[in-house]
Amino acid sequence: MNRHYTQLRNGVQMPWIGLGVWTPERDDATEAIKQALEMGYRSIDTASAYENETQVGRAVAESGIPREDMFITTKVANGDQGYDSTLHAFESSMEKLQLDYLDLYLIHWPVEGKSLDTWRALEHLYRQKRVRAIGVSNFQINDLEGLLSVAEVVPMVNQIEFHPNLTHMELRVFCKQHQIQMEAWSPLMKGQLSGNETLESIASKHGKTVAQVILRWDIQSGFVTIPKSFNATRLLENISIFDFTLTEEEMSSIDLLNKNEKLPKPDMSKFRSRS
């Protein structure tokens, strides 16, 4: 197996690192994504709520990279949750992305009273082979337990906020027990960890940046990671993390930075229906 990929519970290979594109206000997303693809990125993570699926689709189409070499993720918005509305939202996303199939479809956030029906829709799409893998985002243990009590297909991925200040130890154990691949959004905590002495010291030893150390820690912790950047230097920096390994001691010292500190909760109105 390619060391740059992890294998999901159903055998699908997913890149360890991808590009997060939550930047709906930017007009240059297409060119920036194409630049990332030229550098070697093959995984792109978007969502209906980001309002840039069309730009992602255009970049993928214009890249010249074979579709089978790409891994494209999108998510159903909170306002679109429910069985029929999720199926409608999926078709809308596919039209914008200009794709015949999707690699990973996620429930963006748990929505009480709706997420179980949403999951049934994802299971339907999975059985129809419209989607190669299905999963969830921002689900905690209680959310997963509720889903697993009725699910016919176990989620293959759970994408959550994850960085050295928020390590989710209990959730990690739960997901590992159920063979749910963890994925980190905002792994660099929006640059707030750049001055951390522990991270700076480890980075200096390896001749790497703090960002590279964090992303390497993600992967060695078993997390797929999707840092967001449209800066060419950082794009290249973020993907250059497969030529060094953190020691067990270094991994443990980063784990100990945990403060259970979350970034400010996003404006949930941004996650309403976008279809």
In short:
The protein is built from 10 helices and 10 strands.
Which structural traits does this protein have?
single chain; 275 residues; alpha/beta; TIM Barrel; eight-stranded parallel β-sheet; two-stranded antiparallel sheet; 38% helix; 16% strand; globular; NADP_OxRdtase_dom; Aldo/keto reductase; NAD(P)_OxRdtase_dom_sf; oxidoreductase activity; Aldo/ket_reductase_CS
Instruction: Please tell me the CATH architecture by its name.
Output: Alpha-Beta Barrel
Name the shape in a single word. globular
Strand order of the largest sheet: 3-4-5-6-7-8-9-10
What's the CATH topology name? TIM Barrel
- The termini sit apart by 37 Å
Q: How many helices in DSSP terms?
A: 10
The succession of helices and strands, N to C, reads EEEHEHEHEHEHEHEHHEHH
Number of DSSP E strands: 10
Please mark out the parts with pLDDT under 50 across 5 or more consecutive residues, or reply none.
none
The overall average pLDDT, rounded, is 94
Q: Oligomeric state of the chains?
A: single chain
- Domain unit count: 1
Radius of gyration over all CA atoms, rounded:
18 Å
Structural class: alpha/beta
* Main sheet record: 8 strands, parallel
Amount of helix: 25-40%
Indicate the topology.
Blueprint: E1 5-7, E2 13-15, E3 19-20, H1 29-39, E4 43-45, H2 53-63, E5 71-76, H3 83-97, E6 102-107, H4 115-127, E7 131-137, H5 141-148, E8 157-161, H6 169-177, E9 181-185, H7 197-206, H8 210-220, E10 223-225, H9 232-239, H10 248-255
Parallel strand pairs: 3-4, 4-5, 5-6, 6-7, 7-8, 8-9, 9-10
Antiparallel strand pairs: 1-2
